[in-house]
Design goal:
CATH topology of the largest domain: Kinesin
Radius of gyration: 69 Å
Keywords: ATP-binding, Coiled coil, Microtubule, Motor protein, Nucleotide-binding
Organism: Musa balbisiana
Number of helices: 31
Number of strands: 15
Bound molecules: adenosine-5'-triphosphate
Helix content: 40-55%
Structural class: alpha/beta
Shape: rod-shaped
Number of domains: 3
Protein name: Kinesin motor domain-containing protein
CATH class of the largest domain: Alpha Beta
Oligomer: single chain
Strand content: 5-15%
GO molecular function: ATP binding; ATP hydrolysis activity; microtubule binding; microtubule motor activity
Family: Belongs to the TRAFAC class myosin-kinesin ATPase superfamily. Kinesin family. KIN-14 subfamily.
Length: 898
């Protein structure tokens, strides 16, 4: 940098010199130039060091002194000191008389180099752009040459600038020695000018810096260092920040890409899910449309499973020891799900006996646990099946506890009855979108072989003659209703003519059952403080209408709490208690006979031997799903009863029944039936008119050809069911005839003219009127009806049991009949047929199991219209009750509202 400046200066110095030499004589021109430069340099130096040609001041050097001072470097040092006072601390001054000294030349050279060196060092210290001594070497050399002093400065700091050196050499090479000082002077003069300019500009810079940072010099430098560091740090930080941000941007870009890809994936997945959802929706829509089908299927399957389990299921329950017996030893050795092992005394054979049932509940089983296994049956009722649950066992073994609960009822101790109804309401409510259910209950007891309505608190009816008149008044509807037997959904399960109360909630049912329990015959015996002296039966009628198809399902459930068998010597029964016990035992023995016959697949099943077996006929005969709770007491002194009870229960468990039948009537069939009925009713009316005017009683046979039509829709129903137009025709006409002869019948209502036998056979079956009744009091038309009716009734009964005439039944049955005043002659054709088949031609056979006991019971649908307040028809109850003296009364059908 310095060398460049110097070379420029040198060139500038030389330029005018060279131009002039181009025109004129080089020598003279050089001389002129040298003189000029000398003059200019002298001027400048003079200005710098204050040389005045006139020598105004004594200290100002003269021209000669100046020239000398320039030569020995004093001028340069002084010039620098002038710019920066004290910058060159040491200046080697020439002695005043040096010019006179013989070694003046040597001293001048020494001075020159010494001062020049000091000058350069100071320049460097000041931080000014410097040139090195060697830059002026030419001058030195020339001076040396000029003065004859061979002196060179060898210094590491003063290295030769090759270019400047060369330049100087080039400049000075053609110069005469005497010209060199002039050139040097000129050059130095330019150099000094350059110094001056630079120093000035540097001063300006410094001043500016000082102004902007008013601080000390040291502070400035440290600050500038700090600033530099700070800015460097800042720069570094910015760099790092930038790098980081760059990285972050990259990462963000990556994340964005990933998110985009994720979004894309999600969009695809969503699209997929939407399409899947759409498909699912379609499937659901299809499923919804087929909901009814599925429901139907489900019901079928469910009931098939139930059927597979067997229709009579037997559950055994062991009563715990009562508080007063807590120290006793239990006869129950071991219970394992469906097995129970009884520890037996030696007189009963080996040390223990085992029995198997569908389930065995130990003494600590809760009411809820016991009920849980019966729940499926409750559902079946709502599906249109008939169900019977009955409790059997020795007195005091816990039957009432299981069915109703203890005396002090709590929600936990509610028995099967309450829970079953509660479940019924619950399930019907669950199905309310698809089915509309109506539920009604009846509660009766069989006390001393009389049927009593427990919901009315009326005891056995007194026997008054007008009962018979009322009976006759009901005769016509009974006959008509008889024809509806086989259309009935209840098929013998319904309780005869008891008060049927519609219910809509469990609370209502609880109230009713409490009334029923209060009315039930209960007495204290030695075996039980509150021994039930009757068989009680709570019957629940359910009618469900399928809201979509209009089909009607009718189900019915008997919940029977039997009176307990007892050994009269143990129960110490006397008087009324004894009589009750005898009735109880007899009816239970009749039940045992029926079970035995069923278990042996006997052709004859003696249902008619007791009211109880008549009631349970269809529950035991295959029309219903039946569950028996068999109860045993754990006490040792009850071991004999326990063993006989368990044996009986095993027999019951072995009874195989056919599949239960669903009671369903489709809406379409119902509609068609009504249409046919109304058409035929119109026809019958027309024909009836003709017949009335022309017919005499023997002519009735002409009607067998089917020329007439029934007058009542129920007759039409029967016709639909059995296709027997002859019977229908007869019945229509018979009805009219009966009306005509009603006066005669009323005349015959005197009790003396009303033989007991004429009423026999009415219990449980209105179809089978005794011959004496027909012969004595009913006109010919009635006999005709009877004959036809029997023929029809026989033709529809095809059970195996039907094949055997009641007259051939065994002796025990005979005994039973005589005991219950049941004339053998009348018993033919009297019994509920458990299976209904289409009419068949062929020989007439009578059977106990022929007539469905539907005749004893109005259809639930007709009864459901009753309001709870007007639930009892006294006349009807008279019909259902037997007499206190054990003589039989007709059990007709209560007014059904038809
Ligand atoms: N599982 C049981 N847990 C607690 N106590 C019970 C249980 N079973 C029955 N009992 C009690 O035993 C006694 C007799 O029960 P319960 O009256 O139900 O017998 P029962 O078989 O109906 O008798 P009966 O045939 O004489 O009417 C009652 O005090 C009853 O509370």
């Amino acid at each position: 940098m310095a060398s460049d400046s110097l070379s420029v200066v040198a060139e500038d110095v030389l330029k005018p010199h060279e131009t002039r030499t181009g025109d004129i004589d080089l020598a003279s021109r050089k001389e002129v130039q040298a003189a000029l430069r000398r003059y200019e340099a002298a001027e400048w130096l003079r200005k710098m060091v204050g040389v005045n040609g006139a020598r105004d001041l004594p200290e100002e050097p003269t021209e000669e002194e100046f020239r000398l001072g320039l030569r020995n470097g004093i001028v340069l040092c002084n010039a620098l000191n002038k710019v920066q006072p004290g910058a060159v601390p040491k200046v080697v001054e020439a002695p005043a008389d040096s010019a006179l000294l013989p070694d003046g030349a040597a001293l001048s050279a020494y001075q020159y180099f010494e001062n020049l060196r000091n000058f350069l060092v100071s320049m460097e210290e000041l931080g000014l752009p410097t040139f090195e001594a060697s830059d002026l070497e030419g001058d030195g050399v020339s001076v040396e040459q000029n003065v004859g002093v061979n002196f060179s400065i060898q210094s590491t700091e003063m290295t030769t600038s090759q270019s400047l050196n060369m330049l100087l050499h080039a400049i000075l090479s053609d110069k005469k020695p005497e010209e060199v000082p002039v050139i040097v002077e000129s050059m130095l003069s330019r150099v000094m000018q350059e110094f001056e300019r630079r120093i000035a500009s540097q001063n300006d810079q410094t001043a500016k810096t000082e102004n902007s940072f008013p601080s000390t010099k040291d502070e400035d430098s440290s600050m500038s260092l700090n600033d530099a560091e700070t800015s460097k740090g800042k720069l570094l930080k910015q760099h790092l920040l930038f790098d980081r941000q760059k990285r972050e941007i990259q990462e963000l870009k990556g994340a964005l890409q990933t998110t985009r890809a994720g979004m894309e994936l999600m969009r695809t997945q969503h699209a997929q899910e939407f399409s899947n959802l759409g498909k699912h929706m379609q499937v659901l829509a299809q499923a919804a449309s087929g909901y009814h089908k599925v429901l139907e299927e489900n019901r079928k399957l469910y009931n098939q499973v139930q059927d597979l389990k067997g229709n009579i299921r037997v559950y055994c329950r062991v009563r715990p020891f009562l508080p007063r017996q807590s120290s006793s030893m239990s006869t129950v050795g071991h219970i394992d799900d469906g097995n129970i092992m009884i520890i037996t005394p030696s007189k009963y054979g080996k040390g223990h006996k085992s029995f198997s049932f569908n389930k065995v509940f130990g003494p600590f089983a809760t009411q809820e646990e016991v009920f849980s296994d019966t729940q499926p049956l409750i559902r079946s009722v709502l599906d249109g099946y008939n169900v019977c649950i009955f409790a059997y066992g020795q007195t005091g073994a816990g039957k009432t506890y299981t069915m109703s609960g203890p005396k002090e009822l709590t929600e936990e101790s509610f028995g099967v009855n309450y829970r079953a109804l509660n479940d019924l309401f619950h399930i019907s409510n669950q199905r309310k979108e698809t089915f509309c259910y109506e539920i009604a209950v009846q509660m009766i007891e069989i006390y001393n072989e009389q049927v009593r309505d427990l919901l009315t608190n009326d005891g056995p009816q007194k026997r008054y003659p007008f009962v018979k008149i009322l009976l006759l008044l009901f005769f016509i509807p009974l006959l008509v209703n008889t024809l509806d037997i086989h259309n009935s959904s209840q098929k013998g399960l319904a309780v005869p003519n008891a008060n049927l109360v519609p219910v809509t909630s469990t609370t209502e049912v609880i109230e009713l059952m409490n009334i029923g329990q209060k009315n039930r015959a209960v007495s204290a015996t030695a075996m039980n403080d509150r021994s039930s002296r009757s068989h009680s039966c709570l019957t629940i009628h359910v009618q469900g209408r399928d809201l979509a198809s209009g089909a009607v399902l009718r189900g019915c459930m008997h919940l029977v709490d039997l009176a307990g068998s007892e050994r009269v010597n143990k129960s110490e029964a006397k008087g009324d208690r004894l009589k009750e016990a005898q009735h109880i035992n007899k009816s239970l023995s009749a039940l045992g006979d029926v079970i035995s016959a069923l278990a042996q697949k006997s052709s004859h099943i003696p249902y008619r031997n007791s009211k109880l077996t008549q009631l349970l006929q269809d529950s035991l005969g295959g029309q219903a799903k039946t569950l028996m709770f068999v109860h045993i007491s754990p006490e040792a002194d009850a071991i004999s009863e326990t063993l006989s009870t368990l044996k009986f229960a095993e027999r019951v468990a072995s009874v195989e029944l056919g599949a239960a039948q669903v009671n369903k009537e489709s809406g379409e069939v119902k509609e068609l039936r009504q249409q046919v009925a109304s058409l035929k009713a119109a026809l019958a009316k027309k024909e009836g008119e003709q017949i009335q005017s022309t017919m005499s009683s023997p002519d009735i046979y002409r009607l067998k050809s089917g020329a007439t039509s029934p007058a009542h829709p129920n007759q039409m129903q029967m016709m639909e069911d059995f296709g027997n137009i002859e019977v229908l025709s007869c019945s229509a006409m018979m009805q009219e005839r009966v009306e005509i002869d009603l006066q005669d019948l009323l005349r015959a209502s005197d009790s003396s003219l009303w033989p007991e036998d004429s009423l026999r056979g009415w219990e449980g079956d209105n179809l089978h009127m005794p011959d004496s009744f027909y012969q004595g009091y009913v006109p010919d038309v009635m006999r005709v009806y009877r004959d036809h009716h029997r023929s029809w009734a026989n033709s529809i009964a095809t059970d195996d049991s039907d094949d055997l005439d009641f007259a051939t039944s065994d002796s025990s049955e005979q005994d039973m009949l005589s005991q219950y005043n049941l004339p053998k002659s009348n018993s033919n054709a009297v019994n509920g047929g458990s299976k209904i088949k289409r009419p068949q031609s062929g020989p007439v056979k009578s059977s106990e199991t022929r007539t469905p006991s539907r005749t004893q019971m109005p259809s639930p649908s007709s009864k459901l219209s009753n309001t709870p307040g007007q639930t009892v028809n006294r006349s009807n109850r008279q019909l259902l009750s037997g007499s206190a003296d054990g003589k039989r009364r007709p059990i007709g059908k209560a007014a059904s509202g038809k």
